[in-house]
Amino acid sequence: MLSGSKVGLRARHEEDVAVLRTELFDDVVNSSRAEGGPWRPIPPGTKDPRLVAEDVEDQRVPFSVVELAGGTLVGMATLWGIDTHNRCAHIGLGLRPSCRGKGYGTDAVAVLCRYGFTVRGLHRLQIETLSDNAAMLASAERNGFVREGVLRSSAWVMGEFLDEVLLGLLAAEWKPTRP
Ligand SMILES: CC(C)(COP(=O)(O)OP(=O)(O)OC[C@H]1O[C@@H](n2cnc3c(N)ncnc32)[C@H](O)[C@@H]1OP(=O)(O)O)[C@@H](O)C(=O)NCCC(=O)NCCS
Fold this sequence. Notes:
Layout lengths: L1 E2 L3 E4 L3 H12 L2 H7 L26 E7 L5 E11 L4 E8 L8 H16 L4 E7 L3 H9 L3 E12 L2 E11 L9
Parallel strand pairs: 5-6
Antiparallel strand pairs: 1-2, 2-3, 3-4, 4-5, 6-8, 7-8
Helix pairs in contact: 3-4
This protein binds coenzyme A.
C-alpha cells in the first residue's frame, strides 16, 4: 500500500466493488459528472472495467482509497492512459459521498503523484475536471497542478454542455510531501 498522511492507496478488493458501484456509479448525477460518457446501469456481478479487482490493462492502474486509521474504504483512484513513450498519464478520483470534504481527495492526489512520478518514473500527470468542480480543482492545485486551459463545452452532462479544465503537473515541478 502507498500511504499519504490521511489515506492509503491499495489494490481493489472484491468486497469494495459493490460499495463503489452503489455509491459512485448507481448515482446518475455523480456518475455523469465524473465519467466521460453516459450513465448506464451496471448489473451486479458485471465485470465493469472501472470496478474490476484485477489490473486488466497496462495503461490503467486501479486503486481503492482507504483511511489510514482503520482501513475504511473511502473511494477509488486511478492512474489511467499511461503512455510509456511520452511518460505521461491521467489521474481519476472518486470518493464516497460521506468521505468528501475531509482532505482525503487532496491527500489521494498526493499519493497518486508519488505513484506516477516516483514509482512509475513518469514525466507529466494530467487531470481533466468540470470547471465547477471546486473540490477537485483545489485538490489538484494544492498538489501543484497548474491550470493549462479550458476545454469549452467539452462535456455533455445531464442535459447541458459544460466546460472542463485541464490541469498538468511536471515531475520537475512536483514537491513531494513525503519520501
Ligand atoms: C473531487 C473529490 C475527489 C475531492 O476530494 P475531497 O476529499 O472532497 O476534497 P478535500 O477535502 O481534499 O478538499 C479540497 C479543497 O476543496 C475544498 N472543497 C471541498 N469540498 C468542496 C465543495 N463542495 N465546494 C467547494 N470547495 C470544496 C476544500 O475546502 C479544500 O480546499 P482547501 O485546499 O482550500 O482547504 C471528491 O469531492 C469527490 O469524490 N467528488 C465526487 C467525484 C468527483 O468529482 N471526482 C472528480 C472527477 S474529475
